[in-house]
Amino acid sequence: MKNRAVFLPAILIGLGTAVSLGFSRFDYALILPSMMERLGWSYSEAGWLNTANVIGYLAGAAGTGRVIGRVPSRALFSGGLLLTSISVLASGLVASYPLLFLLRLAAGIFAALSFIGGSVLASGMFPRDARRSGIAISLYTGGGGVGILLSGLFLPALFAKYGPAFWPRAWVMLGAASLLFAGLSTFASRTPVTDAGSAEDAPSWTPRSFLPALAGYFLFGAGYLIYMTFFVKWVENHGYAPGMIALVWGILGLSVILSPLFWNRMLYRHPGGRSMGLAMGMASLGALIPLLSSSLPVILLSGLVFGSAFLNVPAAVTAMLRSSLPRSSWGPSITFFTVVFALGQIAGPVLGGWVADRSGTLSSGLTVSFLALALGALASFFQKVSILEIQVHQPSEKE
Prior knowledge:
Layout: H1 8-26, H2 28-39, H3 43-67, H4 73-90, H5 97-123, H6 130-142, H7 144-162, H8 167-188, H9 211-237, H10 242-258, H11 260-269, H12 273-292, H13 296-307, H14 312-324, H15 330-359, H16 362-380, H17 387-397
Helix pairs in contact: 1-4, 1-5, 1-6, 1-7, 1-8, 2-9, 3-5, 3-15, 4-5, 4-8, 5-6, 5-15, 6-11, 6-14, 7-10, 9-12, 9-15, 9-16, 10-13, 11-14, 12-13, 12-14, 12-16, 14-15, 15-16
């Protein structure tokens, strides 16, 4: 790559993913054990609070589908980031379960606007260069690892020092970091990119052509969020100290950040169901590993394998749609896939929490995670390359 600086906007826009996915959703897992202890929640109640976030995400994605193409993607991205950050910060100012439920719901709504808007922006950065486009998309989704890594470096140590009562301040810290990242991402989004086009002018695209990928994405949404919701609690239940929890979470986040080094080439060469299935299959392996042993090396390996793959599933979906559809259909198709993804995420934590409560062990919840991810990977491999994908993708490879 002659000029790596051209990817700086993608890296900075990726900080928005650190907010919409990392600080807003994934880091709930780090704060969850303290909230459960202080507020007396069951696993089901804990799962429902994360499901509230995804219900909001579903509502936000559905709402985005009505305005995508009419409202600039940049406005959706920056506005969603700001409101997500405020919702995260406000989660540290209340202790009522209904109010926390509403704040998690709001954070999900605004995160959907941000993530979809950012996906369209990342897709449009290099409209004539499939290779650079794959890198930009990977960098954007990989930004979620920054949120995971930073929280892993600080929050477990702070909880060890101040105890479970620290959980409100943890949310305030994440909210402050979110506001900082939102400002940087909003500034970077001013870089000229190709937007998605008008919704009215978009050629009709049919979800029927993407049924295997849609089924896989639904199962991925269910499976990955069980793991991300309960994995830290599972590690804590096996007697590991906060320092070890920080190490596990930090390795997971670092592997997310470094994963584009491997996956961007895969997204460029195989933008269909193969990349999606491989990423999901690796994530399923990461969910399976801790079921085999609770030793520290095995747990660290789980975080490494899962982190290196799971956020590349949304990247694979974005690359597939970018390569398979005309530019004017990117926004509507990404939005539709996000709605299906959100439906899976709604089912996941509730199902995982319910199974864990009934069996009395979180290992059974992780088993559900593994099975959903493995089935999703299998479904994704049946996604065939469309004629339009061949027409759009091949010329870019020559550039």
